[in-house]
Amino acid sequence: MKSISELIIIFVLCSCIIVSVSESANAFSEVQNYFLDGGVRTLGRGGFAPVGTEPESMVLDDPLTLRIASSAEKLRFETTYEYQRILKLYSGRWKGTHADSDTFETVAAIPFSFMKDDLKLIVAIGYAFKGNNVHAFSEKDKTDLTTNSNYDSVRGGLFLSYREKLMAAMTIDGNDYVSGVQLPFEVRIQPIEAFALGYRQNYFHFKADIQANITGNNGMIPFSYNQQRRQLYGEVTLFDDLFLRIGADPANLDNLYGEGRMQLPYGFYLAGSVSQQKIDDLRQPFTVGNDPGGHIDVRLKDFRYRIGVGFDINDQWNTEFNYVHSKLELDGGGVANARAVVDFWPSLIVGNYNYLYSGGVSTDQFQLSGAYQGTRCSFQTGIQYIHMQPSFQLDYWRSALFGFGRAGAGNERLTTDSVDIVGLFFGFGYRLGPATFNYAIGQFIPFATHENKADSSEPGGGSSGSGSGGGKDVFEQIGDKISHHPGGLIQRLQLTVEF
After folding, report:
1. Which of 162, 298, 360, 461 could form a disulfide with 282 if both were Cys (CB 3.0 to 4.6 A apart)?
2. Which domain holds residue 42?
């Protein structure tokens, strides 16, 4: 029972982080992407995208990004790839556990212009692949979890602009997530230079069939979550000195987003954003053998804000500092059917297992970045410090005779109450003729953990705020973390060719 409860703790925390990420998810990679924005150059500068700037690349999940192909009026071909080694353990009770993922997308866009360039049309085709490979094994806990899933998407995109006053974009997306076609789209109207109004609709996907063996019982968690995300937004731009964007889901006003940037004298500027998202409809069933095993219900609220200050040293050099605070709150419950592990008549006596849980993660991120953009070459570098304060409590009990009364009650708590992580990032780019290549790498290093009980038996535990290490200095501790838990690696690359 305890091993099942620990599994539920890990599963619920990871699932809530995944579904709270704003971008389309590549399964377990979104656990790391919770701390990062998309884009190759963005990763190189420490994971936070500049506010109020043009997109780095064409992403057919967000069809209005096709507009960047109209600037050069040339055929634009882009290929992007991301690899994440999320976790790999060489020691401890979960020795051999590993998790990695990769994402590939290619887009080709052809621009057309009519009516003396007043009307612009872009036609695009693309292909996307998303895969993940996770294997968690503990002989002591008699637990084995495996998922190896790959999903493809074939896409076509259209972008239309009239004098840049009216923009409309749409993607026809045939993907394996829903075994059908979805239509992300966005419409943007800018009647005057200082104001724009828009509406967008896209989709969030997360899918992974998790094969599980717990204490000799085989089962499966066929995790599949699809969400339609909508946003009605307004933008204000004044004299290139102030940019403000505010948006909300018209069907659920609890889902809000806002961002802004203010230019200051001498090349300084302020930037920030705020967002909130609530999800109340996540129910995940699972099976044991061929029988229904039960379900887990999840309700969550994710709130975050970002405050940043930057300095444009000149047209080529930039530096920026950001602080981000986020708070993920969750609660829910579930039922594990006794019928799945015992025969019918004994199950009437044993009764179902019931779960109630609550918890969350409070995170503070500090980021410092520097970037250089030359005519041919560019580079970025950044560093993040992350302080996380997770909490989780799970109460469970078993129905007694014929479902009446309670028996086998217990409680599980997440013993780790703080985690400190450093992220190191670097990226570079080079342009040669019509081709531009960008590459970025990031490494998260957990260098300190704190347990809320001094006699924790888990590796890395202890009551010291400096983490485990048996008296070692901080550099030895960091070295141990890298050698024994060399996860947290992210690599992104992009090739762009304009003909």
Report:
1. 298
2. 2-57+72-104+192-197+211-498
